[in-house]
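Aggregate trends can hide what the representation actually does to any particular protein. This step matters because it turns folding into a mapping between discrete strings. For completeness, the protein is quoted in full, as a sequence line and a line of structure tokens:
=====
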Amino acid sequence: MKKYIILITACGLLGACSKSFLDKEPHEFTDAVFWKTAAQAESALGGVYTPLQSEEALGGEEWAGMEAFSDIGYMNDNYGDFIAMTEFRAVQNTENDLSLNSYKEYYQVIKRANDVLAHVPGINMPDAQKQRILGEANFLLAFAYFTEVIRYGGVPLYDPSNTESALTRASEAQIWEVIEASLKSATTQLSFDHEKGRPGQGAAWGLLAKVYAYEKKWTEAKNAAEMVINSGKHSLYPVYSDLFTIEHDNVSENLWVLGAREGEYPITSVLYLPNDVWGGTHPEEAGVGWRLVSATENFYESYEAGDVRKAATVAKRDVDVVTFSGSTDILKAPNNQSPVVCVKYMQPYKEAPIKWSPGLSIPAIRYADVLLIHAEAIMNLGGGGPQNRTVAVAAAATSFNLVRERAGLNPITAPTFNDLMYERKMELAFEGGDRHFDLVRWGLAAEVYNALPAEGTYKPKRTFVPERHKLLPYPQREIDNSNGTITQNPGYN
């Protein structure tokens, strides 16, 4: 009989004891003895979340590293193959530390979510609990496929009843169809009220709105976003910088966060932290920050005057004051290649002692993103959009200005698509690479990237070729392991 590796959680529910539903001990069971009780179903669901916490997925390098593809960030660390991809000069994907591991982590989510969806319906348990478990599994399945498809295009569709399914790439259209179906199911199975670390109905509708935007289904995107907006369950938190603190990472603006605990994964906050903030001028624990990804000077200079998101997101060496390890002074960061660092996740390190993993949750889906998707959909329906960027669309103003005014900027009566591009760039900077994937889906990546001059050696002049670079090269090891049934993306070797 086929065996499954099941990750057993220590507590089952977030907040039920000192540990969360993500805590687990690996055990091996056969189908016959495992898929029997509600507790086992909760344990299996906890195992779906686990790969997201890893260093190469939503909980670390991959989530941060995707920003290096955009015009606002670059990689400080020595991932040569990955950097070649971000500079659009790679001919294949041999980056087996970050890129391949990330691809595999999301596929673990896909596999485990499918197993939950296949087995939990047959378990006797309270219906409300069963529906929540199925809803979370559907959401996580969609999130993992979404992450894979925007990077690689068509990917294998996992079928629990067909082991050969992992050896052939489905079409992009087939993947989007599965994502839509999973999220539609999740919207009927989840409640707007949910525990921290788990998605609720707001996250399902919010991600579905974003999916529709990628597919250019603007009426559907508008309607899905309005399910969140009109629910009354989510709102913008008034202080932008406070969103990225441990004390406020569970506010209603966060439709879904990847939960964190001090001393454990995820480690996103330390990935952005400079490893020498003060340059010897104040005491600090040397080498703590990873500085995996940093900001470009071009991005720093592109903020509108008065935008409070600037100080909450970036700081410039010898210019801006930061607080770190009990000291407040002008940033030094002598080891950073550019003079600008990302400080968005620095607040947990204000006071000593410094922790490798301070317990800051990852804001995976925020209400601000949904508002801007809503405004984008209205613009496209009203004659604006990527090819009509100066067309003013007054109907988009309400959702658009909620985000803009929170940033301390004056409202715009009839915003254009150019205005929307600015708001998404600044609002979502260093939150998983939205800037790059926005430019790609808008068809504007070549125009924006190819016009930028080199910035030091860390962000060279780049040439983006849409036919090739709209997708990342497929992980070469997956191609090799398939004996050629998985093929490379167009334009790569």
Residues 236 and 402 are 8 Å apart (CA to CA). The first strand starts at residue 3 and ends at 9. The chain has 19 helices and ten strands. The chain has a mean pLDDT of 91.
